[in-house]
Amino acid sequence: MNIGIIGAGNIGGNLTRRFQELGHRVFVANSRGPESLAALAAETGATPVSVQEAARSGDVVIVTIPEKNISDLPRDLFAGVSDNVVVVDTGNYYPQQRDGRIAGIEDGMVESRWVSQQLGRPVVKAFNNIYAAHLLKSGRPAGTPRRIALPVGGDDDRAKSVVLKLIDELGFDGVDAGGLDDSWRQQPGTPVYAADFDAEGVRRALASASKERKPEWRAKSGSKAAKTD
Ligand SMILES: NC(=O)c1ccc[n+]([C@@H]2O[C@H](COP(=O)([O-])OP(=O)(O)OC[C@H]3O[C@@H](n4cnc5c(N)ncnc54)[C@H](OP(=O)(O)O)[C@@H]3O)[C@@H](O)[C@H]2O)c1
User: Fold this and answer.
1) Whose alpha carbon is nearest atom 32 of ligand 1?
2) What backbone phi and psi angles, to 5 degrees, belong to 2?
3) Own/partner pairs for 42-48, CB < 8 Å, 24+ apart?
4) What is the average pLDDT across 199-204?
5) End-to-end CA distance of the chain
6) How many angstroms does the Cα of residue 91 sit away from the middle of ligand 1?
7) CB 73 less than 6 A from any atom of ligand 1
């Protein structure tokens, strides 16, 4: 499969490593341009590209950049890209540590719904609740007891099935977590977040999540607005 990855940091870098190992062709981009990705390309065999090329090179395109930078992406990023291309959002909103205030999310929009709106495309939410290091190292063959499971949220069952299959290839069980508007159940601060549960544990954790955003996951009063506002 051809996989575009926008963002080459902790998550984007490790997904590049794993997907290349698995035999997929990765086209990876960051904010500083393809030349700055020479080391990752040499290490993995991935093709460094511009952000626009990454969006146009994949059967699946994974957007994995800080939430506050989503609105810096080109407005027409996915213009002309086939609706069959699956767009994945790995993002988390960290208002106090990194992102500042994003009004839409503070006003109650589910994080991935906000990202989808910014990108002008449906997204599948995945990989947001596992540490990058575990994504790289903790994959196990199907059937391994207590294999780590990852929730996958989204409104399009075909798109979710593509992502669930990739997750299995990476060495994790995928759990269908329902539609995108239910994906608050896997946001930061929920029971499933960074917990490395198996499939049964993920289902239990999703069911027991509470929708209220905890104070530590809200912007502080007076905190700087992200550029989107
Ligand atoms: N770290 C984790 O364990 C983890 C786990 C699950 C989910 N997440 C979430 O996944 C997302 C990515 O996290 P991360 O830890 O991988 O971030 P990171 O290590 O800080 O890397 C961010 C990447 O995004 C790129 N980037 C930033 N702005 C961009 C833009 N406008 N256009 C293109 N590329 C841009 C950066 O490129 P440059 O370096 O060239 O600026 C960098 O390659 C975040 O929302 C995070 O909360 C992280």
Assistant:
1) 31
2) -90, 130
3) 43/17, 44/16, 44/17, 44/20, 45/20, 46/5, 46/16, 46/20
4) 98
5) 37
6) 8
7) yes
- For the chain, state the CA radius of gyration: 17
Q: What is the pTM of this model?
A: 0.98
Question: What separation in Å is there between the alpha carbon of 207 and the centre of ligand 1?
Answer: 29
Q: Which atom of ligand 1 is nearest to the CA of 13?
A: 16
**Contact indicator for 68, 43 with CB cutoff of 8 Å:** no
State whether the beta carbon of 66 lies less than 6 angstroms from ligand 1: yes
Cα-to-centroid distance, 144 and ligand 1 (Å):
30
- Measured in degrees and rounded to the nearest 5, phi and psi for residue 54 equal -60, -40
**In the predicted structure, residue 132 carries a pLDDT above the cut 90:** yes
- What tokens were used for 137? 């190292």
Determine the average pLDDT of the residues in 27-49.
98
216, exposed or middle or buried, with CB in 10 Å at 0-12, 13-18, 19+? exposed
